[in-house]
Amino acid sequence: MKATGLSIEDIRRARPAIADAAIRTPLVRLNVWDAPSEIYLKLENLQPIGSFKIRGAANAMSLISRAELAKGVLVASAGNMAQGAAWNARRLGIPCTVIAPDYAPQTKLDAIARLGGRVIKVPFDRWWQTFTDRSFPGIDAVFIHSFDDDRVMAGNGTIGIEILEDQPDVDTVLIPWGGGGLASGIATALRALKPSLRIYAVEAETGAPLTAALKAGSLQTVDYQPSWVDGIGSKVVFANMLVMAQELLDGSFTASLDEIAAAVRLMAERNRVIAEGAGATALAVAMSGKAGSGRIACIVSGGNIDAAKLTKILSDH
Fold first, then answer.
1. How does residue 4 score in pLDDT terms, banded at 50, 70 and 90?
2. Spatial contact of 177 and 207, defined as CB atoms under 8 Å apart
3. With bands split at pLDDT 50, 70 and 90, how would you rate the model's confidence at 119?
4. What is the reported pTM?
5. How far apart are CA 204 and CA 208, in angstroms?
6. For residue 296, what are the β-bridge partners?
7. Which residues pair with 202 in a beta bridge?
């Protein structure tokens, strides 16, 4: 049984729905000629909020009635989905409340505040519980799930259509896996349009529940270690998101924090692209050779990294 009713038609309908919020980001060649493959970067870090999350938030909110939206929206997010929701809430003139983990980077919290969002910081386990509850005590607002929502995934899936329009001959696509909404949305589009594509999720070694689950064939709880790669990683995969991964993906790969830091440096030095840890993980895997050869598209999911952390990464050679 399929875990979702998401279709390529839903994704196509999302394109005009998000046009007033998200930009059509470029797909550019990585300027490294001795790489193990021909690597392309899908630059979602160039979105108005510095992350792909603006797409899913815009599509979800376009499909909710204005009467419901009048109460405001509620999201659980480490930062990027919060910015996506807050940006669109500001555009629509409605309140936005964010439940954030207590380790969320200050640069993302500051961005949420600039957009008018209200942040409630909680411990990791309470934050993760909000995804299951789809609500938070004392907050009367419309909950928008950061990943387990067909409307959000449809918005994310527009990235897949754009990749194939720009590079029809791509062989492999590498997608960061946090909750799974980005990978599932993009993979739904790619499977419909080019079934022969190889599609892999990528995770940081410090929190790779999908890789563990795919290997075991069932849900697994891992020892998640929060790190500067804050946009991906958790202790466990949602059950229906695992079903989608098993249906849509060819597998997953992990990268070490050192490999991810090297990918951040590489993009900055060779392409003048600023990526956060999650946004550099696909490139880290591609550069390792794990994903093979051919034309590989890496989703640079976001660029919201603390200036101090970026400075340290760039100076550590």
1. low
2. no
3. very high
4. 0.94
5. 6
6. 39, 172
7. 176, 253
223: left (phi over 0), alpha (psi -120 to 50) or beta: beta
Q: Would you state the structure tokens that stand for residue 310, as one six-digit string? A: 């970026």
SS3 of residue 39 by DSSP: strand
Chain center to CA of 288: 21
Distance, in Å, from the CA atom of 295 to the CA atom of 305, rounded to the nearest integer, reads 27
Quick one: pLDDT at residue 233?
87
Per-residue pLDDT tens for 202-234? 999 999 999 999 999 999 999 999 888 988 888
Structure-token pair, residue 259 = 């490999």
H or E, element range at 55: helix 53-62
Strand 38-43 and strand 295-300: the pairing is parallel
25, 113, 121, 134, 154 from 96: Cα distances, Å: 26, 10, 14, 15, 21
* Distance, CA of 297 to CA of 14 (rounded, Å): 22
Rounded Cα gap, residues 49 and 312, in angstroms: 23
Dist. CA 42–CA 195, nearest whole Å: 20
36, 293 Cβ separation under 8 angstroms: yes
Euclidean distance between CA atoms 165 and 182, whole angstroms: 18
Token code pair at residue 140 = 């009367």
Residue 27: which H helix or E strand, with range?
strand 27-29
62-67: long-range pairs with CB below 8 Å, 24+:
62/17, 62/18, 63/17, 63/151, 64/142
Residue for token digits 């059509």?
24
Mind giving me the DSSP string for 137-158? TT--SEE--SSS-HHHHHHHHH
Task: Determine the Cα–Cα distance for residues 199 and 185; give it in Å rounded to an integer.
Answer: 12
pLDDT tens digits along 154-182: 999 999 999 999 999 999 999 999 999 99
Could you tell me where the beta strands, DSSP code E, fall in 207-316?
251-255, 295-300
**At a CB cut-off of 8 Å and minimum separation 6, what does 94 contact?**
69, 70, 71, 72, 73
Q: Domains (ranges, CATH) in the chain?
A: 8-52+150-315 (3.40.50.1100), 54-143 (3.40.50.1100)
